[in-house]
Amino acid sequence: MTSRTVTLLDVARAAGVSKSTVSDALQGSGRVAEATRDRVRAVAEELGYRPNSAARRLRRASTGAVGLHLPATATRLDYYMNLAFGAVERAQEDGLDMVLLAPSGAAGGRIASRVDGLLVIDPEPGDSAVPGLLDAGVPVVTGERYLGPATGPSGAVVCDNAASLTALLDHVTERGARRPALLAPSGSSAWATALRATAGSWGRAHGVTVTVRTVPFAATPAEAEAATRDLLAADPAVDAVICAPDGSAPGVLRAAAALGRKVGARNTGGASGAGEAGGASGASVAGGAAVGPVGTGLLVASCVDGTATRGAEPPVTAVDLHPAAYGRACAELLCDILADRAAPDTVRRHSWSLETRASTDAPG
Questions:
Q1: What's the pLDDT band for 2 if we cut at 50, 70, 90?
Q2: 121 near 141, Cβ under 8 Å?
Q3: Model pTM?
């Protein structure tokens, strides 16, 4: 026997409020007290209420599509393409088409008339299109938080970027590095800001100076190579380089090869006992830690995993942000908000993993 579908009226009666209050509470609209909103959502969950998607689309004059805004550099980055495919796949599961928006964006009103909701990935306060997108009058989910002035409630899916860089710094230290450096992304996105701040806080906590060189948000291998050459020329004692931008690691490897720096933990002074090697090899002391012999080994790691890191020679240790799953998670939250299964300001966490490879001499 099929059970009867739970309606808004059923939820209203059980919660002791009007039908319109239930609708406002579940959609995150109207002037509903927070306690009432929480009670209505709890009752709806208990009764197993599921909004009628067809009726919802009629009420909202749904377009059956959602928009996706990516950073202007996204089209040449492996990470964003995988993210986009994941988002498209998840949106289609709810019967929604995905519209890729031009990097320059458009007026909020025009966008709102074309889509039911928006995904805005890695929003930069300096991106002139973002404020209009966030204030377009439709539900918005950001991939990472927007650090500019808030224009209205939006959901977000976030990674713990501070924790991922901390894991990389801890890893290269365990592998023998005593003078790590970071090729940090420029810009004011949540990702870039977190990485630069973490380099400083980790260094202070460990009594080590983490040298930071700023490179473009989407630095090419050539730009990463030039930055690494300059970095190692200025401070030859650097024995680990962590590059942030997607796809830039091969440039770091090229710079290491050109300067005669062998990549891998077995080649660093610290891996086989920097203290013992120091007296005979001219090791120096910085921040209380012994520095391995200059001009020998170099550890290389990346903040973003992808084709470039997996296919490099040697393969590069990297943080796998699981971009396809991240895209799915962003689209899923937007679908849940559109279907009244989540509040408009919901924040969800996305997990990452550390993939250790030969560039830090991971055991095979």
A1: very low
A2: no
A3: 0.75
